[in-house]
Amino acid sequence: MKIAxxxxxxxxxxxxxxxFAAAGHEIVVGSRSQERADQAAATLAEALPxxxxxxxxxxxxAEAGDLAVVSIPWEGIEGTIPPxxxxxxxxxxxxxxxxxxxxxxxxxxxxxxxxxxASCAHRIQDLAxxxxxxxxxxxxxxxxxxxxxxxxxxxxxxxxxxxxREKVIELTSSSIPGxxxxxxxxxxxxxxxxxxxxxxxxxxxRYGGEASLSISGLENAPARPA
Amino acid sequence: MKIAxxxxxxxxxxxxxxxFAAAGHEIVVGSRSQERADQAAATLAEALPxxxxxxxxxxxxAEAGDLAVVSIPWEGIEGTIPPxxxxxxxxxxxxxxxxxxxxxxxxxxxxxxxxxxASCAHRIQDLAxxxxxxxxxxxxxxxxxxxxxxxxxxxxxxxxxxxxREKVIELTSSSIPGxxxxxxxxxxxxxxxxxxxxxxxxxxxRYGGEASLSISGLENAPARPA
Lengths: 226, 226
Description:
The structure is a homodimer.
Chain A: E1 2-6, H1 11-22, E2 26-31, H2 34-47, E3 53-57, H3 58-64, E4 67-70, H4 77-88, E5 92-95, E6 100-103, E7 106-109, H5 120-127, E8 132-135, H6 142-146, E9 153-159, H7 162-175, E10 179-185, H8 190-207, E11 209-218
């Protein structure tokens, strides 16, 4: 599969790109300019010489990808998504975007008017109305992911389209070692998954290490890979 | 400790009352009328004959409790909290209230204008400004809790006051078998913990069983009891 990644230089985007490439997917690295895309692809190729990382300007990358991962800072949504909307139509678009602010008391998930939508994923869906937007991966431990560790984590997947959620679930379990993806239902709860990132950042700060989230007690869910 | 519980007949409130009483705390069962409080206390005493459950009308219960647990439906906040505000001043008030709606696609966490505040816990804090409001327990498996099972779950605790969070953390690990409570930071993220309940309901519906949430990878957090 060709996977377009926008924001592949951030910790999480980089980690996802490396894992997807290691699983044999071709990564299309999108950026605002060809030069930045070239740099991002070169950095990824250095981290995983066996991977295929093709640099393209955003719209061309969106056209090339069978599936897209949006991992840009949330302030970049308004500028980045509209030009790609047509190219993303009908495709699964995974948003790992979070809107967080940082105060004395810790990381805080933005909500309400500050967001301009019910969540970052909703805003992407508003701007690319024909895309099949899914939220996933926000809560994965980024350092462990970049190091291709066996993560022992669950990936909660929310999205409007059940078919799109299932595609992401399959991609996850076939690509990211030690993860189990679970269908967590409608996109309406996207803010909750995005906001868990703030909670996890605060736990990491309080207790050290890199937290990951898991769910137990589900009778008919697949087992997490040992 | 005397723990006042409001909404002790709901699944979660009932489960908390039973576990706190089993750990030796005296439970004050608050309700809108003495008669309803009597009924609720009798039902709890039937479930745990060794427990002490004292029925009182809401304001008297708030006065009697050293700490309070609010486990009422969110539609009841506006009517229930204001008369108790003075009695709750200075006390730790644990909100386990969630605002959920249920559609074809599953449970959805209310957010934004529908809530009238950033979260249910924020609304309680608005109406009882001198209380030390903490969010916790929303995501515990209620059936397992009522059955006093060893839960193997983490309790994430958010609140403005660090001292209040620590009090709830201590209460949890000394009272609820198989749980570990973690300091998850400021009250600002209360909606995220409340909304995780919608995600968990959707997982339960999709996969069967009763999900509970846990966190791994924290270096300096206490171990979850085996």
